[in-house]
Amino acid sequence: MFEFNKKTNLLERSETRYQLQDVKEPNLHRNLFPYDEIPKIAFNHRIVPIDMPDEIWMTDTTFRDGQQSREPFTTEQIVHIYDLLHALSGPNGLVRQSEFFIYTKKDREAVRRCLERGYEYPEVTSWSRASRSDFELVKSIGLKETGILVSCSDYHIFLKMKMTRRQAIDHYLSVVRECMEFGIRPRCHFEDITRADFYGFVVPFVTELMDLMRDAKMPVKIRACDTMGYGATFPGSVMPRSVQGLIYGLHHHAGVPHELIEWHGHNDFYRAVVNAAYAWLYGACSVNCSLLGIGERTGNTPLEAMIIEYAQLRGDLGGMNAEVITEIARYFEEEIGYRIPPMTPFVGRNFNVTRAGIHADGLLKNEEIYNIFDTEKILNRPCSITISGTSGLAGVAHWVNTHFELTGGDAFDKRHPVIEAIKGWVDAQYEEGRVTDITDGELLEVAERVMRR
Fold first, then answer.
1. Which residues of 382-394 are buried (b: 16+ CB within 10 A; e: fewer)?
2. In whole angstroms, what is the distance from residue 204 CA to residue 358 CA?
3. C-alpha dihedral sign at 46, 266, 257, 208
4. Distance (Å, rounded) from C-alpha 265 to C-alpha 274?
5. Mind listing the pLDDT tens digit for each residue in 259-308?
6. Alpha helices of 239-344 — where are they, by DSSP H?
7. To which H or E segment does residue 147 belong?
């Protein structure tokens, strides 16, 4: 069948029916995943077109996947973080959903209290086991959507579940039908999609889900889960590691509408953020994230990173309040006791801090030289200087002017006697063998003493 695509203004083939390949032995893609070697990224030079949807957004898994990697949040902490997510999301609801566990009494109490907030965004959703009792629980709480695990690689189907592909599909479809019978929207988590037989299993299965969706007149969301972080975005890279190939295939071969495609990535190979951005570029409306990237092993795609990525791709923040990112980071460190690695972009203690003297000199003349953007305006995080043995006069001057809020004619030049005196004290510290940075408290005491003198 051919249809005219109003987006590309071309007549395009719209129907390609892939048949399930119900193989007897698992396809473990050993040419790509030898296990006793580092995985391979191979190329077949097949390129798919960028297909950015009209709308893109984020969803949150801090209370589900994120919570699997650390000690559980308290109910009060969950509710407070949910309030922050709402404030961050903005009037357009760009952090559209947040998923919760509902297994324990504490989990359910947190869900109840978050629902009582009455926020439209983020919508509270759940993750449930494939059981009737769980669906009854989801419905009794009043949730409208739940995640369902549908592991899709032969690693899971053959080696863990001990099923054939046809048996797995039949089992999954029965679970999805049961979920729909309760009036709950299913969100199918295609676990390990970057090691799956995409054309021999994933596309045929998703096609059956789309048929079921049309019959039931209820949306079925497809979450493409890069469970092990194998996704790659190099042009012409082969399936199933190609992020753009996966998203293109879900939309063009399996017929999934853009708004029902969601990407969920992990950071095992340092690719979480770029993989999520490519998922947007090639047709997924939604990317699933967690605050600060917390999650299994190396973590999930950081929500704060995708907010900044959204602004870069769309040209503005779409109404999101990025200052809340700094508030979230402080809450995690000061109230929850979570240590954020200091070099972490946007939220780490040192992300816009410089120590090098030559950099400090540039900041003193114009902070735009060495600051990625106006972090004070956008994130409520002014750029700063940490004083060490390499900071120089410019670094000390910048610290003093920033700390005492001295601007214009009131600001100290790096050759001012006050700055030279403080720098002399700093140099003496390192000449005596000090190796650690000078703390703000120490500098404050010395600066006040020098200024009084």
1. ebbbbbbbebbbb
2. 59
3. positive
4. 10
5. 999 999 999 999 999 999 999 999 999 999 999 999 999 999 999 999 99
6. 243-252, 272-281, 303-314, 323-331
7. strand 145-149
